[in-house]
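User: My collaborator sent over this chain with a note saying "see what the structure looks like." That's all I know about it. Can you take a look?
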Amino acid sequence: MSAAVRPASVDELFAILLARDLRDDDRTIMVGANMPMARAAAMLANMTTHPDARIMIGLGVQSLGGGEAPAVHPFLFDPRTLAAETLMHQSRVFDDMSRPDVFFVGGLQLDQRGNINLFGIPDGDGGWKMRGPGGLALATMSSHCRGYYVVMPRHDARTFVERVSLITALGDAQERRRLKLPGGGIRLVLSPLGVFDFDAAGDMRVRSLHDGVEPDAVREATGFPLAIPDDVPRTVAPTADELRTLRERVDVHGTLAS
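Assistant: Without extra context I'll predict from the sequence alone. Here is the result:
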């Protein structure tokens, strides 16, 4: 089966959906740690719709400048990621690193209001059931950037919760307005089940469900009431051209394929 015909994996779908949704004025793009699908999205956009974008990853800033993309690797700080037509060290572009136009992030927990927990899950006795990676620079970036995308590799009642245990990044639109945060907040949430955004009151809702996913399955997998339209839109599948570009020019080692 050719690369363009083989059905998209979840991570490939994530990469293409993220690249599609970037806006014209997203010129400084920050990729979160250990998010190869987000790195692929930034590179895919840089090779197609955003040729002048600056991609911030690891300890550098990259711009493909019309050249070939370096391969996607699973770990952010793999030294092979530090390859591009241009490379600038973080110390020279600190302002861009702290306030990118757009960035991508995941979470241990995500709640109904869009708050993210990356600190960990408390055990109730002053310790931790699970320790997370923490929130290095996340509070600043989520407060100031034009917008950001949340990518959740799992969708179940333990990850999509009514209220997060701790807030690493404030997504709640009402609280952001009350605090007068300047940034645009969350644009979309992506999960293996669908694409989600937020209504005028700031509650999460279904924007589209992926092929084969039924509304009852999403309700059962979500730990809070989720608004689902009667006529549920379906996520637009990747095109053959999008898959070919992703597989043959961006993710040449097939990191996202499994």
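A starting point for your reply to your collaborator: The chain has one domain: 10-250.
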